[in-house]
Design brief:
By secondary structure, the chain is an alpha+beta fold. It folds into three domains: 114 residues, Butyryl-Coa Dehydrogenase, subunit A, domain 1 (Orthogonal Bundle); 104 residues, Beta Barrel (Butyryl-CoA Dehydrogenase, subunit A, domain 2); 158 residues, Butyryl-CoA Dehydrogenase, subunit A, domain 3 (Up-down Bundle). Helix content is 51%, strand content 15%. It is built from eleven helices and ten strands. A four-stranded mixed β-sheet has the order 1-4-5-8. A four-stranded antiparallel β-sheet has the order 2-3-7-6, covered by helices on one side. It has a two-stranded antiparallel sheet with strand order 9-10. Helix 4 packs antiparallel against helix 5 and helix 8 runs antiparallel to helix 9. The radius of gyration is 21 Å and the shape is globular. The N and C termini lie far apart (43 Å).
Length: 391
């Protein structure tokens, strides 16, 4: 089914994750979507199966693989259950991998083993009620040094895994007057004084993936939980965002492939006018367009994910990698919307029914143009880098 110049090891990684997701994650999808149900043992099961800490060294219990390999797992998970993939992804990439890349030895020793085992669930908190696309300039969460602690005040919104997270990587301004150069990153644990979950949010898609509001009210965080250095959080943020965009494009590839497979099977089985609807050229045209869109996006997404393997600590946020990662999620998210839309059209009335798999996919893909930076912000990134390189 695959193949984009993958070597034997990469194909084996994908195939193993595909079989695991088919057996273990696909059966969870109906209840997750119908009831907005979070499987409470999901992360523990993923940890036991070796699907947490894919990029972490063996000393922390991880597999020691590269980011592209983790992306292949994300694609396989997205094929069978995007909802579960969007619980796993923020934990695996936004939280765990960021601590791995930017944390000091003590932080990695304290946090990575339990994140890798699935005993702890991770999240990342950047977006705020008044700061979405302008996440840096509009940030209102503050952190001030007080002895051996930092004291955080503010609110974060739309945080994936927020309501269930044990560990959250939080961005706050430690020197507001310095703008982007006055941001710091902190590891905040559930149960720290002044930290609580606000509202849990009800979403159109990604149902069963807990998303909510996090409140920091004189929240005391030990100074040793400062990641990087004071006022150095923008390097953590921008490097993490580039990787996040390339990484989260991969499940969209998986889900789009699932939509194409479902639509192709339905077109071959559904009969109208005493013929399979797949024999009609208009349906054939939709299937062909879905395939072309998918394979075109896959090429760009794989290229970006592979490029992230060479991204050093603190790098990103500018240059070719910044442009490429933004382009990958633009391609993947817009492609997935088109493919899911055509899959629903081919399914006709059945595709409009809430419980059908293509309907679940249709509702899931829409957030791809919003999360991790909106489609319009990604366009600005691409254009700015093009213009900068031409000047």
């Amino acid at each position: 089914m695959r193949q984009f110049e993958l070597d034997d090891e990469q194909r084996a990684i994908y195939d193993q994750a595909f079989r695991y997701a088919q057996a273990e994650l696909a059966p969870l999808l109906p209840r997750m979507d119908d009831e907005d149900w979070y499987p409470p043992d999901l992360m523990n099961r993923l940890g036991k199966a070796g699907y947490l800490g894919i990029t972490a060294p063996a000393e922390y219990g991880g597999a020691g693989m590269d980011l592209f390999s983790a992306g292949l797992v994300a694609e396989a998970f997205g094929y069978w259950n995007l909802n579960a993939a969007m619980i796993w992804g923020p934990h695996e990439n936004l939280c765990l991998n960021n601590i791995l890349r930017h944390g000091d030895a003590d932080q990695k020793r304290r946090y990575l083993p339990k994140l890798v085992s699935g005993e702890w669930v991770g999240a990342l908190a950047l977006t705020e009620p008044g700061a979405g696309s302008d996440a840096v300039g509009g940030m209102r969460t503050r952190a001030r040094r007080d002895g051996d602690d930092y004291v955080l005040d503010g609110t974060k919104m739309f945080i994936s895994n927020g309501p269930v997270a044990d560990v959250v990587l939080v961005y706050a301004k430690t020197a507001p007057e310095r703008g982007p150069r006055g941001i710091s990153a902190f590891i905040v644990e559930k149960g720290m004084p002044g930290f609580r979950v606000g509202q849990r949010l009800l979403k159109m898609g990604w149902r069963g993936c807990p998303t909510g509001e996090l409140v920091f009210d004189d929240c005391r965080v030990p100074a040793r939980n400062l990641v990087g250095g004071e006022n150095d959080g923008v390097a953590v943020l921008m490097s993490g965002l580039d990787i996040e965009r390339a990484f989260l494009a991969m499940p969209s590839i998986g889900l789009a492939q699932r939509c194409l497979d479902l639509a192709t099977a339905y077109a071959g089985a559904r009969e109208q006018f005493n013929r399979p609807i797949g024999s009609f050229q208009l349906v054939q045209g939709m299937l062909a367009d879905m395939y072309v869109d998918l394979e075109s996006a896959r090429t760009l997404v794989y290229r970006a994910a592979m490029a992230c393997n060479a991204l050093a600590r603190g790098e990103g946020g500018r240059g070719d990698i910044h442009k490429l990662c933004a382009a990958s999620i633009v391609a993947a998210s817009t492609m997935a919307i088109r493919v899911a839309d055509r899959a629903v059209q081919i399914h006709g009335g059945n595709g409009f029914m809430w419980q059908t798999e293509v309907n679940r996919a249709y509702r899931n893909v829409r957030v791809g143009t919003i999360g991790g930076g909106t489609h319009e912000i990604r366009q600005l990134i691409i254009a700015e880098e093009l213009l900068r390189s031409a000047s």
